[in-house]
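From the pipeline queue, job 12 of 40. The input is one protein chain; the requested action is below.

Action: predict structure.
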Amino acid sequence: MNITDILLPEAVHAPLRVQSKKRLFQEIAQATADRLPIEAETVISVLMERESLGPTGVGHGVAIPHGRLEGLEQVMGLFFKLETPVDFDSVDRMPVDLVFVLLAPKAAGAEHLKALARVSRLLRDEDTRAKLRSTSDAQAIFHILTADEASKAA
């Protein structure tokens, strides 16, 4: 699975100014509702439900909130670079400034897990995180997130 299979350039939001995880989830929900016929409240509910099982802050300032939604046809990603890190109850207790959201169809099985693994591998890379933090240009961020795919295609 490639990042370009789940993330479109217009789904990259940077820089985003929020003060809390709750406010971030509201922004994620609104960005989703702007693109899809899904109510923002539904997105917030799905993300909060998943978060109640355990925080999706994976460490190193990265979070990968995710959930399954009725009405989606395929796994969809959104990326947010926060202007100021927010507390995310991360495993390493570090605040989060890089957020890759994954939303999957309710019946998605392996595709959801493949997307989660792919995003996790990408954001585990220290150089990638440093590059993402070095810019607030959404187009540049998209290119950083998809750079290894572009080099494989060349």
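Job complete. The chain has one domain: 3-153.
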